[in-house]
Amino acid sequence: MSDPEILFGIYCPPHPQPLLSPDASEGYGKLRDAFETCRKRIEESEADLILVYSTTWPSIIGHQIQGHPEPEWVHVDDDFHYLGSMPYKFKMDTEFAEKFRESAESRGLQSRTVSYDGFPIDTGSIVALKLLNPDNRIPACIVSSNMYANRAETIVLGKSARDAIGAQGKKAVVVVVSSLSNRMFTEHIDPAEDRIHSAKDDEWNKKILEFFGDGRLEDLSQLSREIHGQIRVQKVVAYKPAWWMSATMGQHNNYTGEVLAYEALHGSGGAVVVLTPSKGSVGDKEFDEDDVEHYHGDRGVLDTGAP
Amino acid sequence: MAKGEIVLGCLAPHPPHVVYAENPEQNEAFAEGGWETLRWGYNRLARKLKSIDYDAMVIFTPHWQTYIGTHFLGLPKFKSKSVDPVFPNLFRFNYDISVDVELAEKMCEVAGESGIVTKMMRNPDFRIDYGTITSCHMLNPEWDKPLVTISSNRNAHYYSPEVMNEQASALGDACAKAIEESGKKVVLISSHSLSHRHFVTESPLPEDMSREHIYNHSQYVWDMKLVDLMRDGKMKEVIDIMPEFTEQTIAETEAGGLTWMMAAMGYPEYPAEIYGYQSVIGTGNLIAAWDPLEATREIVL
Predict the structure, then answer these.
(1) What is the predicted ipTM?
(2) Would you call A185 and B126 a contact, using CB atoms and an 8 Å cutoff?
């Protein structure tokens, strides 16, 4: 197996405004421009795979990987249905999907590919793939975010992705679809007046972006639990995107970080960031959590010590 | 015009497994059976519904999740295929449903007047969620009544289960008023499990009932606590302990469905009809009904 060649990573928001209503506010337009910059970077690169981890695709039965060669549908967002429909037809790398599943299983994870006509691809994946790879020039792969998975499982999932990229000798662009702060306004707003929901969310977002800008991805991974407690609406057990992204890209801080845009999306923090592997390292965090290689499942604490 | 009324309230869980196990022609997957305790309970409740005169079903679903207010289906017809994102191997259902848009608009209007953030959903490409389809199919497999689907505003996520209880109660009050003003006879459906911790693995044959059991005993004990209160007609007490129940069992009541339905029905003090309880992939699922008419109210189980 060769070392995985990950050309760069992109962190981008899941909301549909940059795709469906980029002219509704200056901020949405800036996010759209940032997606466009990323699209060009991908086009100019030698990438032969776009690997997407989407926080808006929750799974329960392990980790699901899109395995349909050409998924096609017309998607409508649950909240933002009035912005319009999102027709899509994507080209998936089914061989990579199978390899990713196999790699995940070999590291102890429950995983399966899904290949069904009409399977509901999530808003975040659709927004990312339509804006980053509009002509399906490069085949893609999408992996779900298991709603019960925590740090160990997510890091092992990232390492599985890395295994699969290396095994197939792919040149991959890694895309993580996630908000920063994810609290939206609970009322309908004028898009022109959109802003980050609170000053606290804004401060934390800017701190995260400072880390991204310095290329300190592994440090962000280590801060995930704190980020979850501070600025994430508690829909799932943890803030996982930085865990997965860092594990997939090699668990270090050696990147050139570029924050291409940071804007509000109905109150949530939407940023488009590019991380390109580079030499040198920065960081001042001490890591004391295990670097997990294999997932062994729950520890069964409820059963331990039972009479 | 005579006042409208709620003629029955149903707690109708929506694991897609029960539709899968029934093998209706609309579903692409094929099963060898499974989850009979739930399916037979559903079959019996469906027979009771056949004996009731009603105009529409109003369903509150956890699988149309909205964060910006409460949304209502707002077009008369929806025809497409619903594929469960979690269990696509079990549920790929071709649906053709009718919506009572007049009633939906009335509910949206009254809820809006009471201060609730609302929105009508009028995008024809919108896909109906599998929660709505599963509960409605099991209660009315003929699909001969129009629906109103109400989204679940995720107040428990954004605030707390206590706020969810308050907001869902307010929505229930508003919907009851709208039904009364509409002059229609309506069946309410709260579509969800009770305890809601899933196993994260699936047996090779999903309908292999030798593998099926509740996730852990504490989930079961909590579920039975609620069943006992329902049997005793103590629905106000059920709603009062809802925040703790929801937190302790990761219950699907977090979406607000049961609170919404009980508020709309005035927190019944009469016994619920219990049709069945069974676990599905570790979750606790109860089928129950509240019949306001004493003459037709039954002790089922």
Answers:
(1) 0.96
(2) no
